[in-house]
Every structure is written in structure tokens, then in C-alpha cells.
Amino acid sequence: MPKISVLPSDDKTNGWSALLPARKPYDQLSGDVRADWVVVGIGYAGLAAARRLAENRPNDKIVLVDAQEAGEGASGRNSGFAIDLPHNVGASLEELERSHAHMRLARTAISHLEEMVTTHGIECDWERRGKYHAAVSEQGVETILKPFAQELDAIDEPYRWVEKADLHGELATPHFTAAVYTPGNVLMNPAALTRGLADSMPGNVSIYEHTPVLEVDYHNGVHLTTPGGSVFAPKMIIAVNGLAQQFGFLKNRLLNFAAHASLTRQLTADERKAMGSVENWGVTPANAFAGITMRYTKDHRILIRQDIYFKPDFRESDAKRAQVRRQHLRLFRERFPMLDNVEMEHTWTGFICLSRNDAPGFGKVSGNVYTAVCQNAVGVTKGTISGMLAADLATGQDNPLIADIESLGSPQSLPPRPFLDIGVRAKLAWEIWRARAEA
Ligand SMILES: Cc1cc2nc3c(=O)[nH]c(=O)nc-3n(C[C@H](O)[C@H](O)[C@H](O)COP(=O)(O)OP(=O)(O)OC[C@H]3O[C@@H](n4cnc5c(N)ncnc54)[C@H](O)[C@@H]3O)c2cc1C
Fold first, then answer.
1. Kind of pairing, strands 281-285 and 131-135?
2. What are the residues whose beta carbons fall under 8 Å from the beta carbon of 265, sequence distance 6 or more?
3. Burial label, 413 (beta-carbon count in 10 A; 0-12, 13-18, 19+)
4. Is 141 helix (H, G, I), strand (E, B) or coil?
5. Residue 235 has pLDDT above 90, yes or no
6. Closest Cα partner for 404 from 438, 370, 360, 365?
7. Residue nearest to ligand 1 atom 16, measured at CA
8. Candidate from 78, 210, 245 with most ligand 1 atoms within 8 A of CB, to mutate
């Protein structure tokens, strides 16, 4: 009967939701509620799982709960890239097949989200703008971008090789040496998307926010205890990403990291002119740990995502965020020296979950419990598809994509703490030092 000892507690400084109108949260759960299914977690995984359960079983009652509000967990505080390609493709036949499986899964997720955005009129600046996978150093070009381009050739994926001078024109910064531009990526405001998905749930889904699950009992169905009451359902889908261990599953298999992002204030018309009046764009770094994800948003702000480190306690201080903000401002000024009066308006922390072998925590974990967790930092697409497929698996729907997601394996076990902490921190420090030219 697991008692939950670590609850999510994200900061209140998420820039994406600060840009949106005030919103009335769904009620906290009170009293004893019975349902046919319970889903925990209102991120991309839980939202997709609840919707798919509701579609597969229109007469069933589905309860969806979260300790926080839609758009305030990691799903609403990421960089807003719905990524269709693996970051690294790999050349062996096995790796190529893995890449194809990955793309089928990611593109199904993007099509699903696009359909939701269109059908329900979700205003989240959803746009297929593609993305630039960019290297700062010659070394990054040689060791990461060129092999990546060759691998895209091998799987017959379209891309455009962009040299420094053209990149300067397209992104308004001379910072990068080259980039591989691929067209399938979508950019959006992730808090607006997450809220919109929650607000357009089918009628047989009941949402409860500010409803942390404090305790779970798995005897004869699933009994969840919350501060104001309880939920009983015969079956559950766990969609809490890195906190799945709290529910008794995937123990010693999940690695939880903190990541930070900042958004500047809106640029003025003169500042946009000084920049070169470019259109909105998104850049992912050749090295995800040493480098910086950046966006120029549709409403003329610059996003900086940088500083990832091992943080298994899911907590970060305001002092650390203040330090990160100063760092983000310095990185921004280095890249956009013509915008020297522009400040960071929002800086926030979010938590991401990785596995040692990049595999998802997907599947049936006991007779009546399924997980759709561990999105390996690409949760817009991976979370969405794992939620959809967990619901299909749980309701016995035949879907060939279940074989695709299962082919990605499951999270490998990790050494015990404190050896784990020492090993992960040392490996990350080495990775950042090795790729320091990409910073
Ligand atoms: C700064 C940053 C930038 C990122 N950029 C990108 C990007 O551009 N593209 C991309 O694809 N991914 C990105 N990611 C990763 C992405 O945000 C995550 O992979 C994704 O949000 C995971 O979705 P999820 O639904 O699995 O989990 P989450 O979004 O973490 O949702 C899990 C939910 O479970 C709830 N929960 C946990 N425990 C309990 C409990 N006991 N009771 C009740 N509720 C509970 C939490 O409150 C939370 O809302 C980024 C992440 C960060 C932090």
C-alpha cells in the first residue's frame, strides 16, 4: 500500500502560463468517487490516455486527477517543440528500424495533437515551423551535424543544410556555425496546449485539479486517497512521469533531472528591426546538455532553455532560479548583442525524466495498472503517444503502434544511491566539459 512521499511542487513562475488569461481551476476532489478508470497526471500522457479511454469506452466513467493545474506541470513549462525526429538517428539496421518506429510514433502524436488543436480551436500558436538542429563549433559540425545529415539521407528524410551566413540571416544571430533544418517539428505555447486539451475532454471524463494522490491501495481494484476524499476504480493508468516510483513501479529505473527556461519581454518594433525582422523559429542544440535550446516566439520573445542537472528530490530554490536567470541573460546577450536593453521576464524550473537506455516506461505493470511515463525529455510527442497507446492496451484495442513502442524497450535498472548520484553527476559534468564548445 504505497504512501506517496514525494509530491510535485512546481514553482509559480512558468512564463508560458503567465502569458495566458486567468483561468478557473477544476474543483478539488471531495468525497468518495467511483469510476471505471482512473488516470493520474494531467500532462500530455494523462490527457491522451483519458481521452483515448473515453473514446474507446464511451459508456465508461473516467476520472483524471492532478496535484497541480493543467499547464503548470512539465507539460506546460517546456520549450514548446513537438519533435518528429530522433535527435540522433544511428547507422546500424537496428538503429534505423528504431528510428522508423520513433518517427511513426512521434508523427502519430503530432497528427493527433494537430487534430485536437483544429477541432477544438485551441489557441496555442500551433505552427509547423520545423526546427534548426544547430552546432556552435566546427567540432560540433563534424561530430554531430554531418553524421546526423548522413543518417537522414539513409532514412530518406528531407532536410536543409544551413551554413553560418544563411543562419545569421534566418535566426538573426551569428552564434552558430551550421545547422540541419528539418520541416516536421511544431512550435507552440505548451501551457495553452495543455490547458486546451484538458478543457476539451469528452463528457465522460471528470477532471479534478489540486488533488494530490497521497496513498494507493491495489487490493481488489485501485483505491486512491486524496486530501478531500478517495477514488475507487478497477483500473488505473499512471501518467506522472518521473514520480511513477512513488506509485510502486519502475523503482530504480528512472532518472529525474531539473531543466530551466526563461522568456524575455516582448521585443519592441525597433528592437525587431534591429534584429533583422526575422520570422519565428526554433533551435535545438547539437548537444542537449552543453548547448541551449532557443526560440523566437510568434509574439516576439526569445526563449532560452539551458541548465539541466540531476535533481531526484523534485525541488528547486528561488535563489537557484535567480542565478539561472542571470546566466540566461548573459547567454542571450552573447547571442543578440543588438538587444542589450532586453531583460528576462520569466524564469522557471521543470522536471524531466530519462532512462539509462532512452526507453519509455510504457506498458502493463500489474493485472490492472498501466504506465505511460519516462518520456526522455521529448514528452510532447512521446507522452502523447504513450498515453494513447496505454489506453488502447488497457481496453484491448488492436493498434500496430503498440508493437512499435514496445520495440523501444523498457528502462534499465540503475545502481543504488548514493552511487547513482555520484555516477550521474560525474557523467553529466564530463559530457558538458567534453562538449563545452557547444555552450
Ligand atoms: C524546461 C523544459 C523544456 C522542455 N522542452 C521540451 C520540448 O520542447 N519538447 C518536448 O517534447 N519536451 C520537452 N520537455 C519535456 C516535457 O515537458 C516532458 O517530457 C513532458 O511534459 C512529460 O509529460 P508527462 O505527461 O509524461 O508528464 P508531466 O507533464 O510531468 O505530468 C505529470 C503530472 O503528474 C502530476 N502528479 C505527479 N505525482 C502526482 C500525485 N501523487 N498526485 C497527483 N498528481 C501527480 C504532476 O503534477 C504532473 O502534472 C521539456 C521539459 C522542461 C522542464
1. parallel
2. 301, 342, 343, 345
3. exposed
4. helix
5. yes
6. 360
7. 379
8. 78
pLDDT digits (tens, 9 = 90+) for 34-47: 999 999 999 999 99
* pLDDT confidence bin for 12, thresholds 50/70/90: very high
In sequence order, the 6+-apart residues with CB closer than 8 A to the CB of 235 are: 36, 37, 38, 221, 222, 368, 369, 370, 394
For residue 374, the ligand 1 atom closest to its alpha carbon is: 26
**Averaged pLDDT, 93-113:** 91
Per-residue pLDDT of 395-407, as tens digits, reads: 999 999 999 999 9
Residues ≥6 apart with Cβ < 8 Å to 263: 15, 16, 19, 297, 301, 302, 303, 344, 345, 346
Distance CA(105)–CA(384), nearest Å, equals 9
Ligand 1 binding pocket mutation candidate from 241, 293, 348, 385 (most atoms within 8 A of CB): 241
Question: Amino acid identity, residue 84?
Answer: D
Q: Residue 94 Cα, ligand 1 centroid: separation in angstroms?
A: 29
Q: Are 414 and 356 in contact (CB under 8 A)?
A: yes
Beta strand 255-264 pairing with 344-354? antiparallel
Residue with CA closest to ligand 1 atom 4: 78
Q: Which residue has the higher pLDDT, 93 or 8?
A: 8
